[in-house]
Amino acid sequence: QVHLVESGGGLAQPGGSLRLSCAASGFTFSTYTMTWARQAPGKGLEWVCGIYSDGSKTYYADSVKGRFTISRDDAKSTLYLQMNNLKHEDTALYYCVRDGAYGYDSWGQGTQVTVSS
């Protein structure tokens, strides 16, 4: 059974940093493209970034480009999101999502990120 468990969320000040982690189990992590998505209160889902299965390519939403960095450690079956220079508008529930053969097929429970002074 596929499990994705996010951690690392919390409260940060504007301009601060947080590092999210997503521990994956129940599948061969290294063979999947993985992504991060987020949903802010009262807003729709926003795709934040993704990383290819072999780590050869990453892609980012314009809203986070230059501030967020996605990475993966296949030996640990873990996905990361380093978030720097956080802004109020980064406040959201962040999800780790697997990009399967037929779409985004597995989601974690989410970790809350709140940016506030």
What does the secondary structure layout of this molecule look like, with pairings?
Layout: E1 3-7, E2 10-12, E3 18-25, E4 33-39, E5 45-51, E6 58-60, E7 68-73, E8 78-83, E9 92-100, E10 103-107, E11 111-115
Parallel strand pairs: 2-11
Antiparallel strand pairs: 1-3, 3-8, 4-5, 4-9, 5-6, 7-8, 9-10, 9-11
Briefly summarize what is shown:
The protein is mainly β and 117 residues long. It has no helices and 11 strands. The protein has strands at 3-7, 10-12, 18-25, 33-39, 45-51, 58-60, 68-73, 78-83, 92-100, 103-107, 111-115.
Molecular structure report:
By secondary structure, the chain is mainly beta. It has no helices and eleven strands. Strands 2, 4, 5, 6, 9, 10 and 11 form a seven-stranded mixed β-sheet that branches. It has a four-stranded antiparallel β-sheet with strand order 1-3-8-7, with no helix packed on it. β7 (68-73) and β8 form a beta hairpin. The protein is globular. The termini are far apart.
Keywords for this entry:
mainly beta; 4-stranded antiparallel β-sheet; 117 residues; 7-stranded mixed β-sheet
Terminal CA distance reads 40 Å
**Tell me about the biggest sheet?**
7 strands, mixed
Global Rg: 13 Å
How many β-strand runs?
A: 11
Mean pLDDT: 96
Q: Percent helix among the residues? A: under 10%
- Shape designation: globular
Regions with little confidence, pLDDT below 50 for 5+ residues: none
Order of helices and strands: EEEEEEEEEEE
- Work out the helix count: 0
Structural classification: mainly beta
Beta-strand residue percentage = over 45%
